[in-house]
Amino acid sequence: MNLAIEASNIVDGGGLNHLRELLNQPEIATKEISKIVIWSSENTLKLIPDSTIVIKKTNPFLNSGKLKRFIWQLLYSKDEFKENAIDLVFVPGGIFLGSYSVPVISMSQNMLLYEWREMARYGFSSGFLRLFFLFFLQSYSFIRSKSILFLTEYAKNTITKKLRLNPDKSVVIPHGINDRFSESAHKPKTLAKKDSFDLLYVSFIGMYKHQWKVVEAISSLRDMGYDLKLTLVGNVVDTMAGNLLKASLEKYDPKREFVNHKLNIGYEEIHKEYKDADLFIYASSCENMPMILMEAMRSSLPILSSKMGPMPEILGEAGEYFDPTNATDLVKKIDLVLKSKERLGEMAEIAYQKSLAFTWKNTQKLTFSYFMKVYREF
């Protein structure tokens, strides 16, 4: 079977990391796929591992903006697939507008498009209009796809219901966790004896990430007598969210006595940030696959997590949950765990053990096996 990967909109972040792991020695993971042809930009392709069965292709359209990438999909992709004798097309970015005569499997990675409450946080802005436009493009792609690869049951249930898709024509295959996060694993028993705590929240500054609420909560806890410091790791990707965080810092920590905001830390270095943390906060209200939460689990940290989205599905009984839009609720939950510090070690150990189920080798094996299943059924 000859596989095409249409990765024209995979640029960075989790999408790129997934692609790199999926194509890490695929000739070992599968003997049934003869060749894998991936179309993307030059910048993306140079980050994809070389392989005896992977062929990298690009063109001027794929190295331009979204409009030209869509033109390539609409006018040229079918002929290029035919020239390369493609039997099945995988679209990790979830949007494919071209015509085709072979099965197409799309992957769902963007949950924000299907949760109107979260989109509404952007107000009537260019950001909202962009998301609204992408919702229609991706929904159109999903409806036309032979199958959809979801990352969590939460995403599958939400999207198939909203688009009235057949849930039987889909599969749930979660991402894996990079092994280097195990290097940051703590010895949880030491936490029970601590009086001061370093809290960590890793994520870009966006409207559904709620860092400003976390700052407010930590300030309240310090007023209650707790010796706490907070490290935020992540760049500002949304002006509105950046302004909310700035206002919160000016109100609750104008002298930067307890909040340290770190910028421009690349993914290859991010695991080092977990080493000095005692407690992890995850305050996102919208996720498809909460990779950062999973990486904190692999780092053996006790976790207080948002109760929204797929977070309870991933973390299970290993954490405490709170409403990320309510600082008071976070205050109560942190107060609760710090009053029973012996439980912190238990939370960390359970989280670490649960994280071991998420491996990239398993993701790779299940994904290629599913591709072959769809191909045989076509």
UniProtKB/TrEMBL annotation:
A GO molecular function held by the record: glycosyltransferase activity
Location of the Glycosyl transferase family domain: 185-353
Entry EC no(s): 2.4.-.-
Stored InterPro entries: Glyco_trans_1 (IPR001296)
Class of enzymatic activity (EC top level): transferase
UniProt keywords, alphabetically: Glycosyltransferase, Transferase
GO BP terms in the entry: lipopolysaccharide biosynthetic process
Pfam families according to UniProt: Glycos_transf_1
Organism: Leptospira soteropolitanensis
Protein's name in the database: Glycosyltransferase
UniProt superkingdom: Bacteria
